[in-house]
Design the sequence.
C-alpha cells in the first residue's frame, strides 16, 4: 500500500476521496522538526534519600528545555540530565539545582 494511502486510511492527509465522499484530515507532517539533545552530569553534594531525589527530578522536569533528569542507580550523588541546548544550558540547570537548596557542581566528562 502506498504511504499516502496508508496515511489516509489511518486518518491523515490533506484530502482523500473515499467512496465518493470528500474527507478532510489534518496534515501529519508539514515540516521536519529536529530537536538537539545534550546531557550533563551533576554531582549533588548532600546525601539525599530516595524521596528527595524523586522530588528534585520532578521539579527539574518542569524546567523549560529539560527532557529527562535522573539519578544514577547506585550513585545517589550523581544526576544525569538530558536537555535541549537550544532551550537551556548546563549552567542554567545547575543553577536550578542550587536554587532548590542543594550544593552541586557539573562533573567534567
Sequence:
Amino acid at each position: 500500500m502506498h504511504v499516502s494511502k496508508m496515511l489516509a486510511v489511518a486518518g491523515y492527509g490533506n484530502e482523500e476521496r473515499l467512496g465518493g465522499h470528500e474527507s478532510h484530515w489534518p496534515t501529519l507532517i508539514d515540516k521536519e522538526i529536529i530537536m538537539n539533545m545534550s546531557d550533563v552530569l551533576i554531582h549533588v553534594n548532600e546525601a539525599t534519600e530516595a524521596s528527595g531525589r524523586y522530588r528534585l527530578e520532578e521539579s527539574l522536569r518542569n524546567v523549560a528545555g529539560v527532557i529527562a533528569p535522573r539519578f544514577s542507580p547506585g550513585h545517589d550523588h550523581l544526576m544525569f540530565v538530558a536537555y535541549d541546548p537550544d532551550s537551556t544550558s548546563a549552567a542554567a540547570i545547575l543553577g536550578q539545582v542550587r536554587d532548590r537548596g542543594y550544593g552541586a557542581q557539573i562533573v567534567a566528562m
Summary: Residues 58 and 69 are 8 Å apart (CA to CA). The radius of gyration is 22 Å. The domain at 38-106 is CATH 3.30.70.100 (Alpha-Beta Plaits). Strands lie at 15-18, 21-24, 38-44, 66-72, 75-83, 104-106.
